[in-house]
Structure formats: C-alpha cells, structure tokens
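Page 47, continued from p. 46.
Same chain as before, 78 aa.
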Amino acid sequence: MIFALITVSVIILAFALYLIIGHNNNLKRVEYVFESDKISREITFVHLGDLHGTEYGRDNETLLKMISEQKPDALLMT
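Result:
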C-alpha cells in the first residue's frame, strides 16, 4: 500500500514538473497580415502574450532575437 502511494505521488510530481518546466517553454510565432486603405505604409507589430515570467534562452536571448528579426514598429504586451 505504501509503495503504491509513493509511486502515485512520484508520477503526479513528475507530471506537474513537466507542465511547469517543459510545457511552458515553447515560443510560437504567428504572422497575420491586415490590409487597409487607411494605412499608407507597412507597419509591423510584435505582440507578446502569456509569457508568465518564463525565460526563453539565457537572459531571454532567444526571445529577443525572435523579436529583433521582425524589426517591429511597436511591441505590444498582454
């Protein structure tokens, strides 16, 4: 009985660590194009959302590189 309880506890802990560490470290880049006669030039926005304090690369260098590659006119964060 004790062995089964310990086994279940270890499985739950491993799953929780996976959700906290492994599952939340994925950066996703999605591009949307909007056209309007009201805008006379191309404008690029980078929107950052749901970061939850996660670090992407050492000192966020992966995230910063991804942002700078887009050469945004504005950075939006939610």
